[in-house]
Amino acid sequence: MVDELSSQLISRFDAVIIRGLPFIITKSLNQIFDQFHVLITV
Alpha-carbon distance 32 to 9, whole Å? Predict the structure, then answer.
């Protein structure tokens, strides 16, 4: 019972991570580019 519940939670967590990874990567890349832009302009 507990194993089944935890496995469901883990699979759902994996799905969320896989779906959210591109968003997180693009967000962090945008922050990095912004910092580079500031460095270049200054």
Answer: 33
What is the full per-residue pLDDT of the chain (42 aa) written as tens digits? 678 988 998 899 899 888 999 999 999 999 999 988 887 776
Q: What is the SS3 assignment for 42?
A: coil
CA distances from 33 to 21, 24, 26, 29 (A): 18, 14, 10, 6
DSSP state, 30? Answer: H
Q: What pTM was computed for the model?
A: 0.48
Q: Where are the domains of the chain?
A: 1-41
Separation between Cα atoms, residue 37 and residue 42, nearest integer Å: 8
